[in-house]
Design goal:
0% strand, mainly alpha, Arc Repressor Mutant, subunit A
């Protein structure tokens, strides 16, 4: 109960900035505390409660929001009178494949350590502190590596984009 009282307002403010739906944020906070209580004997030792809760809430809200958006997309697709043609699906598929290839190319431009950090940060949605702990680095080093990796990728993207335009 102490942990709930100590962090509720911080979690609510944080959650509302991620997804501005008051009821969904409140439900997500209550759910994470219930899940923690249910799994309390199986959870690993947590060094930083606040960071753990914020990360847990962020993932829960993004998962919920993603599911809500998918449901809305599905509903609009089902009620949409315009059926997507095979050609449109093929174009969407090719565009997705091209974007994947571009991303792969950009990721090949950074160091393996930076690639690992980027993967943890943007694909596993880990916090800087979690990445630092996992990779045995200082959080500041992780910040710097993410910055440098994104800067390198951005520069290569500009070059690729300018070649594409020419």
């Amino acid at each position: 109960m102490k942990m709930y009282d100590a962090y509720y307002q911080f979690l609510y403010s944080f959650g509302y900035r991620i997804y501005p739906d008051k009821e969904m944020v409140k439900d997500a906070i209550h759910e994470i505390y219930c899940e923690i209580w249910e799994k309390r004997f199986d959870l690993p030792e947590v060094r930083n409660e606040k960071s753990y809760l914020f990360t847990y809430l962020k993932r829960k809200i993004l998962k919920e929001a993603g599911m809500l958006e998918k449901i809305a997309d599905l509903e609009s697709t089902l009620t949409d009178e315009h059926a997507v043609s095979y050609e449109e699906l093929l174009i969407q598929s090719q565009t997705t494949e091209e974007n994947k290839a571009r991303l792969k190319n950009l990721l090949s431009r950074i160091s393996p350590a930076q690639k690992q950090i980027i993967t943890y940060k943007f694909f596993a949605m880990m916090s800087y502190e979690e990445i630092a702990e996992k990779m045995n680095l200082q959080p500041r080093t992780v910040y710097n590596q993410v910055y440098e990796a994104l800067k390198t990728m951005r520069n290569h993207f500009k070059v690729l984009f300018s070649l594409f335009i020419i």
